[in-house]
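Appendix B, example 12.
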Amino acid sequence: MEGLENLIILLDAGGEGPAGTGYQSIRIKLIRYFDWQRCVAAEELTDETIDRVAKRIAQGQQIENLGGFFYGVARLVLKEFQRKEQKQQRASANLPTSTEEVSNDDEDDAVQLRRECNKKCLEDLAEAERDLIVPYCQPDGRSNKERRQDIATKLGIKRENLRLKVYRIRHKLDKCVADCLKDNEGK
């Protein structure tokens, strides 16, 4: 907290407006930057950027160009966020798209076993979780962003909260599939 207070004082240094004006100004600029980068979590990333800069100041780092430093940190925060998004999208692509069984005699046993475990674990989910994860991961011709925003709107929650719910369901599915594969390993 001390770092944030020092940052606010530093941002207001030389300013003639009320206290906190410099902080509000940089916050708005960072939100605009993240919006310009088409980031769906602009405010969260802005807060993360400000927290990191405040932490550096609290650690005693001397910063000559504070505005430039903010944008440098913002770029790094954005890259981290984008990497997480890509990782999440790759994980989504590996989830089954429906509970229908697809039979193919040419598949090797490991692929068939994984498919059976995926199906079993998907069916073992609570109906509400299954009704959430399947449309979240199943392409329907629209962009992922648009489709997932529709799901979040129907549920009356923010997309970030939807992402968290899906992450928890996906974690549960991954554990179930891993256990299933482990149980069937020797068979």
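Helices lie at 2-12, 21-36, 42-58, 66-93, 109-124, 127-137, 144-155, 159-183. Confidence is low (pLDDT under 50) at residues 101-106.
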